[in-house]
Specification:
Layout (H helix, E strand, L loop, with lengths): L1 E4 L14 E5 L2 E6 L4 H6 L1 H11 L5 H8 L3 H10 L9 H12 L1
Parallel strand pairs: 1-2
Antiparallel strand pairs: 2-3
Helix pairs in contact: 2-3, 3-4
């Protein structure tokens, strides 16, 4: 997610497809997000939650709260959008499994 001051808003490339937090004097004043077919279909809150979850800015529980969904429905929505919930490095996962089975 990009963060920049309102004076730099005209330099922001809206075609990047990323969320952006716009600030004024260091305080967040609004969030900019791409206007896509997905957003129209899912709604702003669900799309915002999915984007922030995908960019690892929220936990699944936080995303569910923003989207107005229970945890199970949020997991299902993320899965339908092919968003990974667990993002283990393969080596880290092997180490965790080895430690579990010792």
């Amino acid at each position: 997610m990009d963060v920049f001051n309102i004076t730099n808003l005209n330099k922001y490339d809206v075609e990047q497809g990323h969320l952006a937090v716009i600030t004024k004097e260091g305080n967040p004043i609004f969030v900019a997000m791409p206007f896509t077919e997905e957003m129209l279909k899912l709604g702003v809150f669900k799309m915002l939650a999915l984007k922030m979850l995908e960019e690892k800015n929220l936990t699944v529980q936080q995303a569910a709260k923003i989207a107005g969904l229970c945890l199970i429905d949020m997991l299902s929505l993320a899965s339908s959008q092919k968003i990974d919930i667990v993002d283990y490095d393969p080596k880290e996962l092997d180490d965790e499994l080895d430690a579990y089975y010792e």
